[in-house]
Each structure stands twice: as structure tokens, then as C-alpha cells.
Amino acid sequence: MPSFPYETVDVFTDHPFGGNQLAVFTDARGLSDAQMQSLAAEMNYSETTFVLPPDDPANDARVRIFHRTAEMPFAGHPNVGTACVLARHGRDRNGVLRFEQLAGLVEIAVERDTAGAVTGAVIAAPQALSLGIELPVDGIAACVGVAPSDIVTSGHKPVQASLGVKFVLVQVASTALASATPDIAAFRKLESQNPELQGRLSLFLYARDGNAIRARMFAPLAGTWEDPATGSASATLGALLLSLDGGEEAAYSITQGVEMGRPSRLNVSSRRAADGFRSRVGGGCVPMFRGEALL
């Protein structure tokens, strides 16, 4: 019976049982697309990654990312977690890993302590900021169970944005963030009314105090009722805020997962580049389990 080894880690935290869980299949050769999707659903984490040989030997791996119901072109915590797992196996090159993904090439810098142990990683999102459609305040408020007046539009309206994977970024009043609760019927209604979303409606809510940010992310249509830490959305938010605030670069500290009992800390640095606004996102990573799937 073929077996496929995997490891799990908690990402964007420095202690077990915090952050966002991730399963990493360290050698996915021989797995079909359907098996990868089934394993991701079986693991029931926000995402699961599958490591394959790179198409270009100048890179370190081809990494496929699946959530519970579909494959993703790019994501934050799966890249941080996968990089930490592979670095612990000695598969980095001088502290750097390059992953081939659907959204493009992702470069990850591995972080180590003074003893050389892997403690975390920082990734560079594969694309510059792009903006999509704006969504109505009333529809967004219904999706998350807050009053329309709790949606803050002084900086921007609820807007779809991407650095490789699309999220709808929504600023809310700090008093409303903790009470937000997804309404799946409202999600379905809003998604059906906006075909430009192409079936993807992931809401990243945030409350801002300068460059300190509290956030929550809901994507129930994709099987993620709430996500403890969303690196790709955090990186996208940093790029959006820098584009609105002005300047050449900025750093943001984002806290997420508190309401779930899995507090997460994400460090985002954003900069103005020749092709637009780009971001890096990083944080800690703690090893948890090792096992094998028997198929």
C-alpha cells in the first residue's frame, strides 16, 4: 500500500496550538489531483500543501496548495509553513527557498535562531497589487452580521484585491470586529449577484490603529468558516494601505485568530516598486505532528 509522509505545523505563532494549522506532504510524487484534493478535505485545515520536484532545477520545489474544496494559486501561511518544514530537512539554499506555484515564483527567506534552528520564514508575494470590483456596503454588512454603519469607507470601499489570490478587503469599526459572524445565505446571495467574483468570495475584515491592525477572514463558500491567519490577504492589505497612504514603504503588524482562540501575528512590509505595490509577509512556525497517509 503506497504511503505518503506528511508533517503539520502551526504558522504565524511561536507556540503550539496557536496560529494557523498546515499539513505538508513532503513528497507528493504519485498523487493524483483528485487524491490531493481528497487529502486536503480529509485534513480539514485551511490549506494543505503538496511538494513536488520543480520544473526548473534552479528552483527548489513545485508546491501545490489546496483548501478544502479547490486548489489555490498562492497563499501565505502554506508558503511560510512549507518553507519551514523543508528547511528543517535541509532543503533550503543558504536560507532561501524558491517555490513554483500557479500564481508565479515565490521566494521565501528562512529565519533561524542563534543555534541555527528554524523559527519562521518571510515570503515575497508573487505579484504586484491589482484591484477588482467594489462591493456594496449593505451586502458586505449582511454577510458578516454587522450594521452598514460599521463598514468604514473613508479610506476605501469594500474592494476585491490581489497579490496572487483574490480577497475582498473591508475596513470595519473596531467595536464591530469581534461581533462579526458569517451568514452563508448572505454570502451566496452576494456572490450570485456579482459574477465578476467568479465564485470566490473571501472577506478580510480589519480594524486599524495606525499600522497596528486586527483582522478576521471568512470564506464559508470555500469551506473555511473562519481562518486563524491569512498571510496572502495580510500582504494584500499592506500593499493597498501603502497605495492609499502614500510613501515608498511601510510596515504593518497584523493580529488575527484571537476570536477563534488561535492568536496569530503576521508581520507585513510593503513597498512601492516599478510595477506597482508589493509586499512581504512573515512570522513564526512551530512543528506539531508527523505521519503518513496510506492510499
In DSSP terms, counting alpha (H) and pi (I) runs of 4 or more, how many helices? 6
Spatial strand sequence of the major β-sheet: 1-2-3-4-6-7-8-18
Any idea what the shape is? globular
- End-to-end gap: 6 Å
- Alpha-beta content class: alpha+beta
Major beta sheet summary: 8 strands, mixed, barrel
Helices and strands, in order, run as EEHEEEHEEEEHEEEHHEEEHEEE
Helix share bin: 10-25%
Report the mean per-residue pLDDT as an integer.
Answer: 97
Oligomer category: single chain
Helix-strand layout with pairing:
Layout: E1 3-11, E2 20-25, H1 33-43, E3 47-52, E4 61-66, E5 71-72, H2 76-88, E6 96-101, E7 104-112, E8 118-124, E9 130-134, H3 137-144, E10 151-152, E11 159-162, E12 166-172, H4 174-177, H5 184-193, E13 203-209, E14 212-219, E15 224-227, H6 231-245, E16 249-256, E17 264-273, E18 276-294
Parallel strand pairs: 2-3, 4-6, 12-13, 14-16
Antiparallel strand pairs: 1-2, 1-18, 3-4, 4-5, 6-7, 7-8, 8-18, 9-11, 10-12, 11-12, 13-14, 14-15, 16-17, 17-18
Helix pairs in contact: 3-5
Describe the structure in your own words.
21% of the residues lie in helices and 42% in strands. It has 295 residues and is an alpha+beta fold. The chain has an eight-stranded mixed β-barrel. A hairpin with a 2-residue loop joins strand 17 and strand 18. Helix 3 (137-144) packs antiparallel against helix 5. The longest helix has 15 residues, at 231-245. The protein is globular, with a radius of gyration of 18 Å. The termini are close together.
Summarize the structure.
This protein is an alpha+beta fold and 295 residues long. Helix content is 21%, strand content 42%.
